[in-house]
Write a structure and sequence with these properties.
The protein is of the alpha+beta class. It is 16% helix and 41% strand. A hairpin with a 3-residue loop joins strand 12 and strand 13. The chain binds the ligand N[C@@H](CCC[C@H](N)C(=O)O)C(=O)O. The site of the ligand N[C@@H](CCC[C@H](N)C(=O)O)C(=O)O has 18 residues, from helix 3 and helix 5. Catalyzes the stereoinversion of LL-2,6-diaminopimelate (L,L-DAP) to meso-diaminopimelate (meso-DAP), a precursor of L-lysine and an essential component of the bacterial peptidoglycan.
Length: 318
């Protein structure tokens, strides 16, 4: 059961309550304004349906959030058990759902909030500089505690459509309200799908209307997150800067998207050519994220995403 329909003298109203999470203690937390309802379900008895997730994430009749995160021990979910075979230390699994109840593979802001939740709940000990491995649907991610937040090794990035993207610098066309003409986009895989669009001369990020979803063609089979970017001038040639707005799959426009920031930096760095820096600051409506490209021992290039995680409330769902 999800939201109850309740008869009142004023008519029928929708009320969250009487669902699978009734009585569960949750936290409301965010990373650069990307906000989540987080809870612990160590032994995996609280697998929730999409309607409950959507009801809890509803900003008017629920607690509100861009997504919901369930902290479950890896041994209690099939995807987690598969990861334990190669990473026996990935004790905790991040079960991430978008605000509309759909399942997503990965969330870059969410994984910092997730680890912060584990630390606060005393489920993981993580002194500054220490690392913890976390299971996600996109694979295992290593998270380190920094002086002001968390840094996550997000694994390798790749072009979704390798050759076309590399040769032409684009592999799709994106139409959005407020764009003067459809723009070329490039599809990037960060464990979850992204299409990155650079605005052209004269186009402004605040001229975009992201109340409706941008249209990406060819239509991605599983949908996509869409990032609009404007490179910013930077005096320091070692650090790139860009500004970004994002329309998230399964949510709508959000204040921030961690995987989106990684995809946006990867695309902008690729478009900039071999002289482009390895370190980027990505300005989003909810703050600033740091994205760094580092060579990995296996010959691939990994993306390290760093930023804050903040708790704003604890609550019990009714
Ligand atoms: N906000 C997240 C991404 C969440 C998942 C995304 N909406 C999807 O469906 O892939 C982030 O910080 O990465």
């Amino acid at each position: 059961m999800m939201a109850r329909m309740t008869e009142t003298t004023e008519g029928t109203v929708r009320a969250v309550g009487g669902h699978e999470l009734t009585g569960v203690r949750v936290s409301k937390a965010h990373g650069t304004g990307n906000d989540f309802v987080v809870f612990t379900d160590g032994d995996g008895t609280r697998d929730v349906g999409p309607q409950t997730v959507a009801a809890v994430c509803d900003r008017h009749t629920g607690l509100g959030g861009d997504g919901m995160i369930r902290a479950v021990r890896s041994e209690h979910v099939p995807e987690g058990r598969a990861l334990l075979r190669t990473h026996p230390d990935a004790e905790w699994f991040m079960d991430y759902r978008n605000g509309d109840g759909s399942v997503a593979q990965m969330c870059g802001n969410g994984v910092r909030v997730f680890v912060d939740h584990l630390v606060r709940e005393g489920l993981v000990r993580l002194p500054r500089g220490a690392r913890v491995r976390i299971g996600t649907r996109a694979g295992v991610r290593t998270v380190a505690r920094t002086s002001d937040g968390y840094a996550v090794d997000m694994g390798p990035w790749s072009f979704t459509d390798g050759e076309t993207a590399r040769e032409r610098g684009a592999d799709c066309v994106v139409t959005a309200a407020g764009l003067t003409v459809p723009r070329p986009g490039i599809s990037i895989d960060m464990g979850n799908p992204h299409a990155v669009v650079a605005l052209s001369e004269g186009e402004k990020l605040d001229g975009l209307d992201l109340h409706t979803a941008p249209v990406v063609e060819p239509v991605p089979a599983e949908g996509t997150n869409v990032e609009f970017v404007v490179p910013l001038d930077h005096d320091d040639s070692d650090v790139g800067r860009l500004e970004m707005r994002v329309h998230e799959r399964g949510v709508g426009e959000t204040f921030s998207c961690g995987t989106g920031a990684c995809a946006a930096a990867a695309a902008t760095r690729f478009w900039g050519g071999p002289e482009s820096p390895d370190r980027w600051f990505v300005q989003v409506p909810g703050g600033v994220l740091s994205v760094t490209f580092v060579p990995a021992p296996d010959g691939t290039e990994h993306v390290v995403l760093a930023g804050p995680a903040r708790v704003v409330a604890h609550a019990e769902l009714v």
